[in-house]
Structure formats: structure tokens, C-alpha cells
Amino acid sequence: MSQSKKTIFVTLFFSIFSAVMGVGIVVPLLPVYAMSVGAGGFYVALIFGSFSLSRTIMLPLFGSASDRNGRRPYLVTGLIAYVLISFAFIFIKSVNGLIGVRFIQGIASAMIMPSAQAYIADITPAGKEGSIMGLFNLSVFAGLSIGPLIGGVINDYWGMDPAFLSMGVLAFIGYLLCILYLPQTKEEKVFSQLRGGG
User: Fold this and answer.
1) Among the listed residues 153, 112, 151, 116, the one whose alpha carbon sits nearest the alpha carbon of residue 136
2) Domain spans of the chain?
3) What fold is seen in the domain 3-190?
4) Residue 196 — left, alpha, or beta (φ > 0 → left; ψ -120 to 50 → alpha)?
5) What is the DSSP string of the chain?
6) Are 98 and 36 in contact (CB under 8 A)?
7) Listed residue (145, 153, 151, 182) closest to 164, CA to CA
8) Is the pTM of this model over 0.85?
9) How far is the C-alpha of 190 from the C-alpha of 18, rounded, in Å?
10) Chain segment 121-172, per-residue pLDDT in tens
């Protein structure tokens, strides 16, 4: 793998790690937060289910769109959406509002993950697909493992709002990494292939 491709890999790894860790901080606290604004068990399930529903619907659509338009636009849009969603969690104090925010968060997630995974596939040398993708997936599962631990500590010492802000800060770090270190869309492999560039 060339140096430029290594830079892309490292950028994607830490961008996804930051974003997923931020989500991991918040998700275990959501049932407590939802109940504090009046949600019963059924509505807690809706809050979680709305994320999965929108993500399931939108994943193939954004995956296909990233094949046509490049990976970077969807990555940066999804990550900045996560930043905005973190503030929405703080200010929305209704059950229906939480369902809506989680629905939008699922859409943002559908922008991020297929684009990142496809980008990794684009830069992976032939014969290294399994090892590179396995290494990249460490970013997801490490974030999901560390996030809840950090979220519990933040909530115990400082409360729920700082936990939501932490998700936003971590997503913003991922956004900055993508803006600063990912090549412009016109330089992506999928973009050049689509336009007959190789």
C-alpha cells in the first residue's frame, strides 16, 4: 500500500473510531434519558428502532450514491450531521422528538459506514482485502467497546448533557480528519473510473 493510501486508511480508521466511540458514549444512556422525559418501554423501543429503520432503508441508497458521486461527500456530511444531532439531543425534551432525532441519526449513519467501507475497498491491494477490512473494522468495535465505559463515567460525574456534547466533539474530530486528509472527490478511484480515468 502506497504512502498516500496509508494516509487515507489511517484517516478513515480514526474518523470512524471517533464517530463510533461518540455514539457508544450516548447509546447506553438513551434509555435512562428517554425515561426521564416520559418514555415507557414501548417508546424506548421506538427510539432505538427508528435508528435501525432509517439506517436499513438508506444504507443501499447511500452506498449506491457514493459509487456515483464519490465517498468523501457522504462521509463529511454524515459526520457533521452527527455533530448537529449531539446538540439536538440536549435541546429536545420530548419522546417524539427523540424518535425523530434517532431517525435522522440513522440516516447519517447510513451515509458514513458504506462510504467508509467502500473507500477502504478502493485503496486495498488485491489479495489483502480480508486483512485490511478486518483491521479497519477494529475502528468500529474498539469505538463501541470504549464508548460506553467513557459514557458511564461522564454521566456519573458530569451528567447527560456533557455525554451528548462528547459525541458531537468526537464526530467533529472525525469530520476534521476527513476534511484535512482525505483527497478531494475528483481524486478518488471510484470517481476517476466513473469518468473513464482508469
Assistant:
1) 116
2) 3-190
3) Growth Hormone; Chain: A; (1.20.1250)
4) left
5) --HHHHHHHHHHHHHHHHHHHHHHHHGGGHHHHHHHTT--HHHHHHHHHHHHHHHHHHHHHHHHHHHHH-SHHHHHHHHHHHHHHHHHHHH--SHHHHHHHHHHHHHHHHHHHHHHHHHHHHHPPTT-HHHHHHHHHHHHHHHHHHHHHHHHHHHHHH-HHHHHHHHHHHHHHHHHHHHHHSPPGGGSHHHHHHTT--
6) no
7) 151
8) yes
9) 25
10) 999 988 999 999 999 999 999 999 999 999 999 999 999 999 999 999 999 9
Report d(CA 149, CA 18) in Å as an integer: 14
Give the pLDDT mean for 91-106: 94
> In the numeric block, which cell numbers belong to residue 69?
458521486
Q: Which three cell numbers stand for residue 115?
A: 462510504
- 53 exposure class (CB count in 10 Å sphere: 0-12, 13-18, 19+): middle
Report which of 128, 108, 138 is spatially closest to residue 12, judged by C-alpha positions.
138
Cell of 79: 459526520
